[in-house]
Amino acid sequence: MRTRTIVLIVAILLVAGFAALNVDEFTRSSLLSVGFATVQAPLGLLLLVLLLAVMAMFLATTLYMQGRHLLETRQYARDLTTQRDLADKAEASRFTELRQFLDAQTATALNRESAQATVLAERLAQTQQVLIDKIEQSENATAAYIGELEDRMERRDVANKPPVLADEPVLYKQSPQTV
């Protein structure tokens, strides 16, 4: 229990104990003025009844305030739950939108990447074809140079040889360079 409640209960018990110990004095009649008239009534009992009435009013007010507070708390809890649900739904929708955005970005990046890969493959194929053409040209040029050199060497050998008779076998001298 809260401290105020304990103090209130102790105060009520003290008043009740005091009234029980002094019942004779509380019930003794006395002359009382109520403003416009004079009445014969027990003053202690009248004050005790007024104290009980004020206490009952205080208790009713307290119960009303606590009940109202409880209802407001429940209403706030419902509103908070509703707002939390809305926030969760909004967050889920943001996650869904983010997922869709990321999927779209990924698809765009994949398309761009595949297009770049296609362009790169085409360029590599073109470069390879150009390289093959250059190699063939170089091969043809080298073959032409070698053929020209062979022709020159044959002409030089034919020009430096003595005429060959049909009956004589052809013997070539080995030059010291070929050994």
Protein architecture, described:
The chain has 179 residues and is mainly α. It is built from three helices and two strands. Strands 1-2 form a two-stranded antiparallel ribbon. A hairpin with a 4-residue loop joins β1 and β2 (38-42). The longest helix is centred in the middle third of the chain and has 118 residues, at 43-160. The chain is rod-shaped, with a radius of gyration of 61 Å. The termini are far apart.
What are the defining features of this structure?
179 residues; 3 helices; 79% helix; rod-shaped
Helix-strand layout with pairing:
Layout: H1 3-21, H2 23-27, E1 29-33, E2 38-42, H3 43-160
Antiparallel strand pairs: 1-2
Task: Give the overall shape.
Answer: rod-shaped
How much strand? 5-15%
Number of helices: 3
Terminal CA distance? 125 Å
Average pLDDT reading: 87
Helix fraction by DSSP (H/I, runs of at least 4)? over 70%
Strand order of the largest sheet: 1-2
Uncertain segments are none
| Class computed from helices, strands and strand pairing | mainly alpha
Strand element count:
2
Radius of gyration over alpha carbons? 61 Å
| Element order: H for helix, E for strand | HHEEH
Sheet of most strands: 2 strands, antiparallel
